[in-house]
Amino acid sequence: MLYFKENIPNKDSKLIYIYKDITVIQMQKEVEMLMLSLGYKHLGQGLFEKGNRMMRLLFGAFCKYFKFRVHIEDYNNGEVKVTVSKDTTGLSGGAIGVNQVKTEFYNLSRAFQTI
User: Fold this and answer.
1) Rounded to an integer, what distance in angstroms lies between the CA atom of residue 71 and that of residue 48?
2) Do residues 66 and 103 make contact, with C-beta atoms less than 8 angstroms apart?
3) Among the residues of 15-93, which ranges form H helices?
4) Which regions of 1-115 does DSSP assign to beta strands (E)?
5) Structural domain spans, the chain
6) Other CB atoms closer than 10 Å to residue 28's CB: what's the count?
């Protein structure tokens, strides 16, 4: 079932989505299933990581590394607000690494609209 209602535009580098007809606990499960299907590990506290940080530091853009924070909270009228933010900039991979993080962030934005 599609719970996605709307995307809230913002000036920060965050993705903010509103979902309807779902509880916070159900949304946590949906987000975890989505992120695991995309190859992320759940580190707890809403942190999701993909790749190896040490390899990224050693080999730069040749090794991908992404880390995102997902915050889920009650919104108004039984809706749920999900905020996704970058927890790494990609600078350890240089200009290519920064672009990789931007591309992955865009891919996540599309994926979160499928929940």
Assistant:
1) 11
2) no
3) 24-37, 53-59
4) 4-7, 14-19, 41-44, 47-51, 65-74, 80-86
5) 4-113
6) 16
CATH topology of domain 4-113: TATA-Binding Protein (3.30.310)
d(Cα 29, Cα 37) in Å, to the nearest integer?
12
Amino acid sitting at position 61: A
pTM of the shown model: 0.90
Q: Which two tokens stand for residue 54?
A: 């040490």
Q: What percentage of the chain exceeds 90 in pLDDT?
A: 74
Please name which of 108, 2, 10 lies closest in space to residue 50, comparing C-alpha atoms.
108
Tokens 């889920």 belong to 72
Mean of pLDDT over the chain: 92
Q: Are strands 41-44 and 47-51 parallel, antiparallel or unpaired?
A: antiparallel
Percent of the chain that is helix, strand, coil (3-state, to 5): 40, 30, 30
Residue 23 neighbours by CB under 8 Å, 6+ apart: 80
